[in-house]
């Protein structure tokens, strides 16, 4: 077992792409993302969002937490850690995964990149070094925190394939969703993965920080005629909700952060039962999840198509029973979707409510000209992502 201490910094850090991003900033809206400066928006949230849907949006992913996991027991270690069977994820593939505590409650979700045989990279929103350390007992593995050692860009949108093709990336047309490959960029190895957080055609580029500025310049030169724009977190968040993707501190709280019982969620309650493989002999939370599977879950994640155009931020969800309203849950993320022309939301409701096709009611409060208004809006539970274009899964994607 080899461990490397997680770095501690004073003050806010700048990503390798910060000089390029900062030059484009016109609104001065930034926030802290795991110690790094990250933009909420750079010029206009709406225009940045439409760059994702009509052209290509480029988002600086560098602050994402990254851990390199290697060693003879790397696969066994990961299979013990996460709920899905990592033995099925061959080299050159990427897996979405969740990991739980002993009570079967989600600590976090993330992506696991099988870089090469026995070599993995785990990416997550939160920092989990202490948990990963504790889970290494009995395994011959090495865990290295490599967030600072890898610069990353999300390149997302219908023209992303055309732009990267202009960079003459070999083999790009054969890269399937959740696939990865290693290519040469100006003498440095760059990893290209067909992954993203937007429910659209898209890629992520991973490279040594020393080549970050050269990669940015080459990418934007290749995309000059393909509507390429840098984007901030607000535009990405709207695309995330349209995709129906979960976010920590929105759809769930990391179980190691909650104080009150009943405030965390299991993967079964988050609609992630497809990620829980009970055929594996053992993994963190297996016994608790097996019991929940037998007895039923308390909560159910839902996707809602809501009447009207007032976004249902922080709204309560009701069912009507015998003419009376009954509170059954609450909205976790909401937005008016410009591309779907829908009022959409993600929420959590008490079982057995929340089956696809169910009708529920959402209590929406909104302010206009200093006055608060209340609306009870009808909503339908849907079981598909709000946005899922055919190009997202096409190989090759085709030129746009």
Question: What does this molecule look like?
Answer:
This protein has 400 residues and is an alpha+beta fold. Among the domains are: 2-62 and 150-231, Gyrase A, domain 2 (2-Layer Sandwich), CATH 3.30.1360; 298-382, Elongation Factor Tu (Ef-tu), domain 3, CATH 2.40.30.110. It has eight helices and 20 strands. The strands form four sheets. A six-stranded mixed beta sheet has the order 1-9-5-8-7-6. A six-stranded mixed beta sheet has the order 11-12-13-10-4-14. The longest helix is centred in the middle third of the chain and has 11 residues, at 212-222. The chain is globular and about 70 Å long. The model has no long low-confidence stretch (mean pLDDT 95).
Features:
6-stranded mixed beta sheet; alpha+beta; 400 residues; 8 helices; Gyrase A, domain 2; 18% helix; globular; Elongation Factor Tu (Ef-tu), domain 3
Radius of gyration in whole Å, from Cα? 22 Å
Order of helices and strands: EHEEHEEHEEEHEEHEEEHEHHEEEEEE
What overall geometry do the principal axes of the alpha carbons give? globular
Q: CATH homologous superfamily of the domain at 2-62 and 150-231? A: Probable tRNA modification gtpase trme, domain 1
Using the coordinates shown, work out and report the CATH topology of the domain at 2-62 and 150-231: Gyrase A, domain 2
Q: Give the DSSP E fraction (strand runs of 2 or more residues).
A: 25-35%
Q: Give the N-terminus to C-terminus distance in angstroms.
A: 48 Å
User: What is the average of the pLDDT values?
Assistant: 95
Main-sheet strand order equals 1-9-5-8-7-6
Beta strands, count: 20
């Amino acid at each position: 077992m080899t461990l490397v201490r997680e770095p501690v910094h004073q003050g806010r850090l700048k990503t390798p792409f910060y000089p390029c991003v900062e030059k484009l900033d016109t609104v001065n809206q930034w926030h802290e993302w795991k110690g790094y400066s990250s933009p909420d928006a750079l010029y206009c949230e709406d225009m940045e969002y439409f760059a994702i849907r009509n052209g290509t949006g480029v988002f600086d992913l560098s602050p994402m937490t990254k851990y390199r996991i290697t060693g003879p027991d790397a696969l066994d270690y990961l299979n013990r850690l996460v709920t899905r069977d990592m033995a099925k994820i061959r080299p050159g593939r990427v897996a979405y995964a969740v990991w739980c505590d002993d009570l079967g409650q989600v600590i976090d979700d993330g992506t696991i990149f099988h870089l090469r045989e026995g070599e993995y990279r785990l990416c997550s929103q939160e920092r989990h070094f202490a948990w990963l350390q504790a889970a290494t007992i009995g395994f011959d593995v090495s865990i290295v925190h490599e967030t600072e050692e890898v610069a990353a860009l999300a390149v997302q949108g219908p023209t992303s394939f055309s732009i990267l093709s202009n960079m003459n990336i070999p083999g790009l047309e054969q890269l399937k969703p959740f696939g990865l490959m290693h290519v040469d960029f100006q003498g440095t190895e760059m990893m290209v993965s067909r992954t993203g957080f937007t429910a659209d055609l898209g890629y992520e580029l991973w490279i040594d920080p020393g080549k970050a500025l050269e990669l940015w310049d080459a990418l934007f030169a290749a995309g000059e005629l393909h509507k390429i724009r840098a984007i901030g977190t607000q535009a990405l968040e709207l695309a995330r909700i349209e995709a129906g993707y979960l976010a920590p501190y929105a759809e769930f709280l990391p179980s190691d952060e909650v104080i009150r019982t009943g405030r965390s969620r299991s993967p079964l309650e988050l609609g992630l039962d497809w990620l829980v493989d009970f055929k594996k002999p053992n993994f963190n939370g297996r016994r608790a999840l097996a019991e929940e599977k037998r007895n039923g879950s308390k909560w159910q994640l839902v996707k809602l198509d809501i009447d009207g155009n007032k976004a249902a931020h922080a709204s309560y969800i009701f069912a009507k029973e015998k003419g009376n309203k009954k509170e059954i849950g609450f909205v976790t993320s909401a937005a008016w979707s410009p591309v779907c022309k829908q009022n959409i939301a993600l929420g959590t409701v008490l079982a057995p409510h929340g089956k696809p096709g169910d009708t529920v009611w959402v209590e929406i409060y909104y302010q206009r000209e200093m006055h608060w208004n209340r609306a009870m809006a009808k909503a339908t539970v849907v079981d598909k992502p709000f946005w899922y274009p055919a190009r997202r899964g096409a190989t090759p994607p085709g030129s746009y």
